[in-house]
Each structure stands twice: as C-alpha cells, then as structure tokens.
Amino acid sequence: MLDEISERNQQIAQKYLEGRSAPSIARDHGLSLSSVRVILREQGVTASKRSPRPDIVEAEKKPISIKHKKIGERLIYYRSMTKGQGRAEASRKLGWSTQKIAMTESGKHDLTLTDLEDLASYMGLNNITELLQSV
C-alpha cells in the first residue's frame, strides 16, 4: 500500500514538472488541491505561479462544435429577446447555474440529453427535434 502511494506521489510530482497544473492533477487523482500541494512539497517540488499553456487557452476559447454554437445563439436570442431575461433568471427557470448558461451560450458546454430536454421545455418547444431543427 505504501509503495502504491509513493509511486502515485512520484507520478504527481512528475506530471507537475512536465507542466500540468496542480488543480488538473488533483482532478485526475481524486485529491484536493491542498493534498496535491502537500505531496509536491514532500517530493521536493517547488510550486510556481504558472501562466496557462497557450494551446489550452486557445482551445478553451472555441465552441465545441458549430451545432453547440448555434444552440447557444438560439438560447441567447430566446432568453434575451423573446423572454427579456438575464442569465440569472434563466438559470432559475432551467435549474442550471449561471455559469452553465454562459458556457452553453458560448457553445462550450457539452450538452446532455437532459440539457436538451430542459432547453426545449424552456423555449416552449414540444421536443428536442424542434430545438435541433434550426441547427
């Protein structure tokens, strides 16, 4: 058991030294951020402030797909023009966070079937097919 933990801790340190962020490593290993920082210190790794890698930042700017972008645009139009709602009010109606609304509107949220059902209902559509017809 101790050998497994030691090996995991070495892998964590190696990933960090290769450029991975501590929060990313924490998510991958199911650990808290503070646990990862303790492990890095124990492994003799000095944590540093990092700028995000340009390739990751650029990828995060782009919508997942054209369809995601069009669904987002349709949500923006319906929410703001038809309903006259801000994100906060729409998030209450949908049962979503405002961040999820913003990510969906920008095409960066990977929508589930339930999300599509929620959107169709919010927009007064009979089903998902009607929502997807225009995208």
Quaternary status: single chain
Q: How many strands appear in the DSSP assignment? A: 0
Structural class: mainly alpha
Mind telling me the C-alpha Rg? 21 Å
Which tags fit this structure?
single chain, elongated, Arc Repressor Mutant, subunit A, mainly alpha, 9 helices, 67% helix, 0% strand, 434 Repressor (Amino-terminal Domain), 2 domains, 135 residues
What does this structure look like?
This protein has helices at 2-17, 22-29, 33-42, 54-61, 66-82, 87-94, 98-105, 113-122, 128-132. Helix content is 67%, strand content 0%. It is elongated. Helix 2 (22-29) packs across helix 3 and helix 6 (87-94) crosses helix 7. It folds into 2 domains: 2-53, Arc Repressor Mutant, subunit A, CATH 1.10.10; 66-132, 434 Repressor (Amino-terminal Domain), CATH 1.10.260. The chain starts with a helix and ends with a helix. With 135 residues, the chain is mainly α.
